[in-house]
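Write out the 3D structure for:
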Amino acid sequence: MKTKIFIIALFFISFKNEILSQEYHPLLNNSAWIVYDWVSCCTPSQDWAITEEEEVVIGSHVYKKFIHTFKDSYSPTFVREDVVAKKIYKIVNGVDTLLYDFGLNEGDTITQYGNTFVAHVDYVDLPIGSRKRITLQSIEQYCDQSLTQVWIEGVGSNKHPFYPNYNMYNVCSSGGGYNIGTRCSFQNGERVFGSDCPMSLLGVNTNFESRKIEFFPNPFSSQLNITTSTDFENASLKLFNSVGQLVMEKNNLNGKSISIERENLSNGIYFVELLQEGNVLTKSKLIVTN
């Protein structure tokens, strides 16, 4: 009997691990990051935000445009995701370039940034649950050590989300070199990675994580419903079309549930902002259809 129970337990553990390995958690899901940088010898840590703007069509693909708030030295970054293939691409010098491949398995190799890496796969517990983690180690040695990258599904990298190769060559720096790291990562207003996040950098209020806001149905044809875990108090809604024009504005919104009529909106993609007391509560993409 004990043997049977043990076998059954092993089956369920194996089944759970298989499910975890198969489920994919997209990276680009109304995402934002708070990133820090410092030079270990002489510069204290500084934080800045990376936030999502509009979608942009480049060639035959749709990309999401991200900007680096308070960090003018960075140009906007254009990123797209192939959810089926579990791959993320970004535009580099006008070319569609592989950024992440979360389809890698233990022992797979990948060539990036002029180096060949071997993948080591495990899972890490985050505030939203277990996520696949890929640690890449270079086959080539530098200063008698391997270069490394750490990718986390649904987060990106523990370094800069769009430059996961930052800090790789610090293994050759006696002073520690220039460092960049992801302090926190967010999706749809929920913290999915990190702690001790300076929320003001995202331009949202301090209740960002504790307040849950939902839009449904999405797509919608006649009426959009909005619910919140904490009452809206004189909130405002702004709706922008795909080229950034303000097409609808609603003010004096109160309570835990709000309904917005379609009115004369055409079919298409829209971007909504909810604001309260001058702070952005959340942003989201909506689709209007028949």
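Residues 2-22 form the longest helix (21 residues).
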